[in-house]
Amino acid sequence: MDRTDDLRIDHAAPTLRALAVDRLRGAIISGRFASGERLVERALCDQLGVSRSVVREAIRYLEAEGLVETQPRSGPVVARLSWEDARQIYDIRRLLEAAAAADCARRADEAVAERLGAALARLIAAFAGGEPAALYDATTAFYEVIFSAAGHSIAWDIVQRLNGRISRLRALTLSTTNRRVSGPAHMTRICEAILARDPDAAAAAVSDHLHDAAEIARQSLAPQSLEDTQ
Amino acid sequence: MDRTDDLRIDHAAPTLRALAVDRLRGAIISGRFASGERLVERALCDQLGVSRSVVREAIRYLEAEGLVETQPRSGPVVARLSWEDARQIYDIRRLLEAAAAADCARRADEAVAERLGAALARLIAAFAGGEPAALYDATTAFYEVIFSAAGHSIAWDIVQRLNGRISRLRALTLSTTNRRVSGPAHMTRICEAILARDPDAAAAAVSDHLHDAAEIARQSLAPQSLEDTQ
DNA sequence: GTTGGTATGTTGGCATACCAGAATACAGTC
DNA sequence: GACTGTATTCTGGTATGCCAACATACCAAC
């Protein structure tokens, strides 16, 4: 029994549906579809080159993810984001990420330290480079190391989903010069606390970081109310 | 403009899809479909009396909710729950519910106090009654008051979704005699802390409560490993 | 010119049809 | 009787078709 496991071929066979979900999610998160924009099914069929069944199922999935909302009569729309929602999301992230950092600090071993160091290096390089997409990815990768090392896989799923919903805000805050200065400092502080195996310090560092991020988001969102509630 | 708002008819028109999602979710949460059981689409069509399109879209939605997982070759099955997953879920609930209770305590006014008291009364009655479904609902209603008063609507969504995933465990723990004794005491303590406007005490009370619940769940799940990972 | 009515187009909700892969049953062969 | 190859069935993936509701445009009548 064990011997066969080695040569099992796991025939991944990505379905069109899965591909469509990824594409659509990417398009929404990257801002290619504006907030509140209607997602006309037949148009998406043309753009994706698949049938309506596939598009509709993908939309249902993204709807449950909170990236798409279906209005009673007029069909699916890219979800809008109120500042109130964003505030709540930052609060939740703060709880989950602080807890993950603390557990990561508790459980960190040499391998984790190495991975975390590498992620931090990439992150700092991305901050210096100034490429938004790279910075976004590097930040994600950094946190993924933390959640993974902490063993918080479900919390990571939740955080990723929440991040999708505030992706436009994240892109905004990540590109803020204010953030470009404080970002690496924050991240370095988080990393150091974890490597020092200090759970409380790690949690505090993460919490402070997110507090700042939320504040930047608020300043850029609240004034002109970019995305109002309706 | 304002005058017309009064007589706007909001034509809810529940779609078959929405109904199907609710039905399926209920069937899974209530345990009518066993964990790991295959969800054969055509069979569901017969049972629900709708077409495959509707069933499939409903399944996609529940898949994103984490209640259903689609295996690469053989289609959708009711999601399995490992103790590791359950443990993480209890941890997350602890964070979110403690935070909600704390904010609820900060913001509690007379109206909240009244609603909370009513919910607690129902809950205690349900504990006494011993009807599992009623107890489940009353517990949900109690927490809904807390999250609603705290203004944590998104966290509430997340908690509800997580609760769906551990619904079988919740049913188990709620019906445990051990819980029947300590449950009302815990809930009363939570309620009192909130009414006393003591955020820290409220958070601690919720945290303790969930710690116990998780422990009961562990004891009932870990020994025989009811739902293994694969 | 405004108003009421009709025709047309757009679009989502739902149902059905077709196909291919996998599993199972079955039959033939040694 | 065990094994192998084939036929059948099951089932999910995908595409397409139909319909009703809503929106828009156009038209006629006053």
**What's the CATH first level of the largest domain in chain A?**
Mainly Alpha
Oligomer: homodimer
Query: How many beta strands in the DSSP annotation of chain A?
Result: 2
Shape summary of chain A:
globular
What's the number of helices of chain A?
A: 11
Uncertain segments of chain A: 1-5, 224-230
Proportion of helical residues of chain A? over 70%
Find the CATH superfamily of the largest domain in chain A. GntR ligand-binding domain-like
Radius of gyration of chain A: 20 Å
Which protein chains make the most extensive interface, counting residues with beta carbons within 8 Å of the other chain's beta carbons? A-B, 32 and 32 residues
How would you write the strand order of the largest sheet of chain A? 1-2
Mind telling me which CATH architecture of the largest domain in chain A this is?
A: Up-down Bundle
Do you know the CATH topology of the largest domain in chain A? Four Helix Bundle (Hemerythrin (Met), subunit A)
Order of helices and strands of chain A: HHHHEEHHHHHHH
N- and C-termini, Cα separation of chain A: 58 Å
The residue-averaged pLDDT of chain A reads 87
Q: Quick one: biggest sheet of chain A?
A: 2 strands, antiparallel
The overall number of domains of chain A is: 2
SSE class of chain A: mainly alpha
Q: How large a portion of the residues of chain A is in β-strands, by DSSP E?
A: under 5%
